[in-house]
Structure formats: C-alpha cells, structure tokens
Amino acid sequence: MMKRNLLNTLVLAALAIPGVAMAADVETTEHKEGKHVTPASDHTVSSNVGLVSNYVYRGITQTIGKPAIQGGFDYARTSGFYAGVWGSNVSWVTASGSVGNASLEMDTYAGFKGSFAEDYSFDVGAIRYNYLGEYVPPAGYVKADTSEIYGAIGYKWITAKYSYSLGDFLTVPEAKGTSYLEVNASYTLADSGVTMGAHYGKQTYKGVAADALVAGGTDPSYADYKVSVSKDFSGYVFGLAYTNTNAKSGGYYTYSGKDWGKSAIAVSLTHSM
Fold first, then answer.
1. What is the pLDDT, as a whole number, of residue 41?
2. Buried b (16+ CB within 10 A) or exposed e, 212-246
C-alpha cells in the first residue's frame, strides 16, 4: 500500500504544478515600450503523467499484460544537463518467483545532451532502476535493482543508443557488460500533430549466470521491435504501439503460464506539463 501511495503522490503532484515547466519560456531582459521583461531562466522543471494499457519495456511486459499508471519529474538546464525521476507500477518481480511485495519501479537518471555539426545530437548519462518493496528472489537470482550507463547519437529523426550494465541486471547476478543496442526513428508529419515511430533493439546478456542459463537451454538474450503512432491533442498525447520479440516462448520470459515476450498492443495517454 505504501508503494502504491508513493506512485499516486507522484502523479498527483505532477498534475498540481501545470505552470512549472514555463520557467524557460520567459523572454530575455530588455525594455519594450517602457516595460521591463523578466530575464529567461537557465532552469526548467517539468512533469508528466500517463496511463498505459500494458507497460512494455524492451519488448517485455512489465505488468503481465495489465494497465499501468506512470509519472515523473524532469529538471533541465540550458547547458544540456538534465536529471529526473520516473515511476510506474509493475508486477513482473513477484510474478517471476520472488516472495514478497515489489510493485513499484522507480527510475532516477542524469545526463548531458546537446548538438554538434548540422542535424546531429548526442546524449550521455546514467540511470538506476529500483524496485521498491521487501522481497526475496528465487534461488540463483538477486534483487532486480539495476544500474546502467548509456550513450546516444542522433541524426535528424534517427537515433542509435547503447546501454551498458554496471553489475546485476534485472535479477540476473554478476551481469556486468550486459548491453542493449537500439535504433529508434521518430518522424512527425507536418501540421498534423501525428508522429510515426519505429524501433529495433538487441538485449545481450553477459556473465557467469547468463552463461549458465544458456547452458541449461534458456537463452536470456533476444531482439525486439516496435512500431507506433501518436497524436497530440493540445498537450494530451494518445499513442498506439505494437511490439514483438524473438524471446523464446516457454523460456526465461515465461512465468505464470504467460509468454512475456509475445506480440502485444499497447494504448497510452500521456500529458506533460
């Protein structure tokens, strides 16, 4: 109950500060028609809240096909530095055999992004995934908390990103070097508010525990892809996405009689402030 209340508080707080993201929109200091204009801020704080019919991360459902409520806060400077926190309810931790309660994912991240040359961008940073609650993982596994560093290069509407695990990875112990390579494309149709998206990713596990899973006939590495479309309705974004993977049915991603990596359709509604 405490973890659910924490997420609800996060979402309600996001809804309560609709004007905070406007800090960077104020004009620079000057005098116009005898009126003093407040200088622009180097800082921006924004919030977001969303509902999704199925929380899918890297092609794998995190809610076993059930809905999720999500929300977060972001801080950014004009220099390119940013930091944030984001949360969502999840159910995969306990559904995968852990005894106890871990129903909230809380991500914290920080990084630096900017542009170079013409039409090129970059983004480097670190992220920590925490799964809050008291629970005991099944034998041979560890708690799901995971740390990654990442780097991305973008050209116009195409971005390539590489994420690298610093240790244990989502219950797999001693998985340093586990990586996720992804290519994302996002293109907004002119004057329509409609954005088309495409994604391909490759999750590759490393380490002794991962090798043991492979030797036992369960390869945790897989590829995933997604196609999506979204429409902005005055700040409220409605999205529709289709995802699929080649994660083996009946293998590492199947618990509770369900294949977590099978094809899925997710509908979402998000609002940023």
1. 81
2. ebeeeeeebbbbbbbebebebeeeebebebebebe
